[in-house]
Amino acid sequence: MANSKRVTINPTVEVHHVLSIHDYTASEISAAWYNEHEMDKIAQRCFKILSKVQSVKSNSGQKYNIRGLESHTTLGSISKQNNRSAAYEVVFDEQQRQYENEESDVQAISDAYQRTTSSSQIWAQVVGRRDEKAVEAYLYEEEEEETTVFLATPAELKVTDSKILSPVRIRRRLSGNTDALSPMPRAA
Known about the structure:
By secondary structure, the chain is mostly helical. 57% of the residues lie in helices and 3% in strands.
């Protein structure tokens, strides 16, 4: 049997009730979402980082984290456009071939597209794995900090929201980078 695909539905359904935005107070909306001014500041910061990365100054040994901004660099933008153009071209060529031969094979179109974009897919998976490892390393580091908390003396501990946190962990949370690079709701 050729590559058969199917969809199954999980018989167990979980319902999570979510408030409508109309059920939020103004202060809850303000705390949950970025406003236009905050989004402008984030965009300006991203443009500033990109400008520094692409300028001669970036060769001074200073490193910038451009994770998520790669496609906005000159090279990244060219690469993205070339990849899209190549994908369009193979799809249109396959459609034209099928039209001329009076065929209709959506799988052939899909296969042509997949062959052309496979390197982008592979690269996305590599970057995703790298991000996953970075998050795991960060979480592992936090677990070590939490373990250290339990070894501390009672005078060094502080109780917050039924969790025991060390003063070091509290400072880390407050001084952490709170900027985001996308217009998404803030974490609660």
